[in-house]
Model the fold of this input.
Amino acid sequence: MLVLALLVLLQTAPAPPGEDPVAPYAMSDANAGGGPFKGVAMLEAFHGVAGIGRIVDDLVTTSQADQRIGDIFKGQDMIRLRRTLKEQFCVLLNGGCHYTGRDMATTHKNLGIQAKDMNALVENLQAAMRRESVTFPAQNAFLGKLAVMKPYVVTR
Done:
Protein backbone atom coordinates (compact mmCIF):
# COMPACT_ATOMS: atom_id res chain seq x y z
CA MET A 1 0.00 0.00 0.00
CA LEU A 2 2.87 2.39 0.85
CA VAL A 3 4.47 1.72 -2.53
CA LEU A 4 1.20 2.56 -4.27
CA ALA A 5 0.91 5.81 -2.31
CA LEU A 6 4.46 6.78 -3.27
CA LEU A 7 3.77 6.05 -6.92
CA VAL A 8 0.71 8.30 -6.83
CA LEU A 9 2.81 11.09 -5.29
CA LEU A 10 5.45 10.82 -8.00
CA GLN A 11 3.16 10.67 -10.97
CA THR A 12 4.68 11.38 -14.28
CA ALA A 13 3.01 11.07 -17.58
CA PRO A 14 5.01 10.28 -20.67
CA ALA A 15 6.05 13.45 -22.46
CA PRO A 16 3.41 14.48 -25.01
CA PRO A 17 4.57 14.50 -28.63
CA GLY A 18 7.17 17.17 -29.27
CA GLU A 19 7.95 17.79 -25.59
CA ASP A 20 11.19 17.02 -23.83
CA PRO A 21 10.89 14.49 -21.00
CA VAL A 22 11.23 15.84 -17.46
CA ALA A 23 12.16 14.20 -14.16
CA PRO A 24 9.20 12.81 -12.17
CA TYR A 25 7.43 15.16 -9.78
CA ALA A 26 4.19 15.27 -7.82
CA MET A 27 1.40 16.56 -10.06
CA SER A 28 -1.25 18.74 -8.47
CA ASP A 29 -3.51 21.64 -9.39
CA ALA A 30 -1.89 23.36 -6.38
CA ASN A 31 1.28 23.60 -8.50
CA ALA A 32 -0.58 26.15 -10.66
CA GLY A 33 0.23 28.71 -7.98
CA GLY A 34 -3.17 29.56 -6.58
CA GLY A 35 -6.74 28.50 -6.20
CA PRO A 36 -9.30 29.01 -8.95
CA PHE A 37 -11.81 31.82 -9.14
CA LYS A 38 -15.29 30.85 -8.01
CA GLY A 39 -18.00 30.44 -10.63
CA VAL A 40 -17.69 30.87 -14.39
CA ALA A 41 -17.67 34.67 -14.78
CA MET A 42 -13.89 34.92 -15.14
CA LEU A 43 -13.73 32.00 -17.56
CA GLU A 44 -16.43 33.66 -19.64
CA ALA A 45 -14.57 37.01 -19.51
CA PHE A 46 -11.62 35.20 -21.10
CA HIS A 47 -13.90 33.63 -23.76
CA GLY A 48 -13.59 30.13 -22.41
CA VAL A 49 -10.84 27.60 -22.92
CA ALA A 50 -10.47 28.67 -26.57
CA GLY A 51 -9.85 32.26 -25.48
CA ILE A 52 -7.27 31.09 -22.95
CA GLY A 53 -5.50 29.23 -25.75
CA ARG A 54 -5.42 32.32 -27.96
CA ILE A 55 -4.14 34.50 -25.10
CA VAL A 56 -1.37 32.06 -24.19
CA ASP A 57 -0.30 31.59 -27.81
CA ASP A 58 -0.22 35.38 -28.27
CA LEU A 59 1.68 35.86 -24.98
CA VAL A 60 4.32 33.25 -25.79
CA THR A 61 4.82 34.41 -29.38
CA THR A 62 5.08 38.05 -28.30
CA SER A 63 7.42 37.25 -25.42
CA GLN A 64 9.76 35.17 -27.58
CA ALA A 65 10.07 38.10 -30.00
CA ASP A 66 10.41 40.70 -27.21
CA GLN A 67 13.97 42.03 -27.14
CA ARG A 68 13.69 42.58 -23.39
CA ILE A 69 12.95 38.95 -22.47
CA GLY A 70 13.22 36.80 -25.59
CA ASP A 71 16.56 35.31 -24.53
CA ILE A 72 14.94 33.75 -21.46
CA PHE A 73 12.92 31.50 -23.76
CA LYS A 74 15.86 30.30 -25.87
CA GLY A 75 16.60 26.64 -25.25
CA GLN A 76 13.31 26.11 -23.39
CA ASP A 77 10.70 23.50 -24.33
CA MET A 78 8.19 25.88 -25.91
CA ILE A 79 5.66 23.14 -26.64
CA ARG A 80 5.55 22.23 -22.95
CA LEU A 81 5.51 25.90 -21.94
CA ARG A 82 2.45 26.63 -24.09
CA ARG A 83 0.63 23.52 -22.86
CA THR A 84 1.31 24.09 -19.17
CA LEU A 85 0.53 27.83 -19.34
CA LYS A 86 -2.81 27.00 -20.94
CA GLU A 87 -3.46 24.46 -18.19
CA GLN A 88 -2.39 26.91 -15.48
CA PHE A 89 -4.61 29.73 -16.76
CA CYS A 90 -7.49 27.29 -17.23
CA VAL A 91 -7.17 26.01 -13.64
CA LEU A 92 -6.99 29.53 -12.23
CA LEU A 93 -9.98 30.66 -14.32
CA ASN A 94 -12.00 27.62 -13.17
CA GLY A 95 -12.21 26.11 -16.64
CA GLY A 96 -12.36 22.48 -15.52
CA CYS A 97 -8.75 21.69 -16.49
CA HIS A 98 -5.97 20.08 -14.50
CA TYR A 99 -2.45 21.44 -14.19
CA THR A 100 0.26 18.90 -14.96
CA GLY A 101 3.25 21.23 -14.63
CA ARG A 102 5.77 21.58 -11.87
CA ASP A 103 5.39 24.06 -9.00
CA MET A 104 6.35 27.68 -9.69
CA ALA A 105 9.62 27.66 -7.71
CA THR A 106 10.93 24.54 -9.45
CA THR A 107 9.77 25.70 -12.87
CA HIS A 108 11.56 29.05 -12.64
CA LYS A 109 14.65 27.93 -10.72
CA ASN A 110 17.91 28.77 -12.49
CA LEU A 111 16.23 31.02 -15.08
CA GLY A 112 17.60 34.14 -13.39
CA ILE A 113 14.37 36.07 -13.83
CA GLN A 114 14.49 39.63 -12.55
CA ALA A 115 11.62 41.96 -11.65
CA LYS A 116 12.08 43.84 -14.94
CA ASP A 117 11.67 40.56 -16.85
CA MET A 118 8.44 39.76 -15.05
CA ASN A 119 7.19 43.30 -15.69
CA ALA A 120 7.83 42.84 -19.41
CA LEU A 121 5.98 39.52 -19.38
CA VAL A 122 3.03 41.13 -17.59
CA GLU A 123 2.95 43.90 -20.21
CA ASN A 124 2.84 41.23 -22.93
CA LEU A 125 0.07 39.39 -21.09
CA GLN A 126 -1.94 42.60 -20.76
CA ALA A 127 -1.57 43.22 -24.50
CA ALA A 128 -2.66 39.65 -25.29
CA MET A 129 -5.71 40.00 -23.02
CA ARG A 130 -6.62 43.33 -24.68
CA ARG A 131 -6.36 41.73 -28.12
CA GLU A 132 -8.76 39.02 -26.88
CA SER A 133 -11.08 41.79 -25.61
CA VAL A 134 -10.89 40.72 -21.97
CA THR A 135 -12.39 43.52 -19.89
CA PHE A 136 -10.06 45.68 -17.81
CA PRO A 137 -11.60 44.57 -14.47
CA ALA A 138 -11.19 40.90 -15.46
CA GLN A 139 -7.59 41.54 -16.51
CA ASN A 140 -6.85 43.16 -13.14
CA ALA A 141 -8.48 40.33 -11.20
CA PHE A 142 -6.43 37.76 -13.12
CA LEU A 143 -3.19 39.70 -12.70
CA GLY A 144 -3.92 39.86 -8.98
CA LYS A 145 -4.23 36.08 -8.93
CA LEU A 146 -0.88 35.76 -10.72
CA ALA A 147 0.90 38.40 -8.59
CA VAL A 148 1.19 36.07 -5.59
CA MET A 149 3.57 33.91 -7.65
CA LYS A 150 6.18 36.65 -8.04
CA PRO A 151 8.40 35.48 -5.14
CA TYR A 152 8.64 32.05 -6.79
CA VAL A 153 9.34 33.39 -10.27
CA VAL A 154 11.68 36.33 -9.69
CA THR A 155 14.88 34.72 -8.51
CA ARG A 156 17.40 37.57 -8.64
Summary: The longest helix spans residues 48-65. Confidence is low (pLDDT under 50) at residues 1-10.
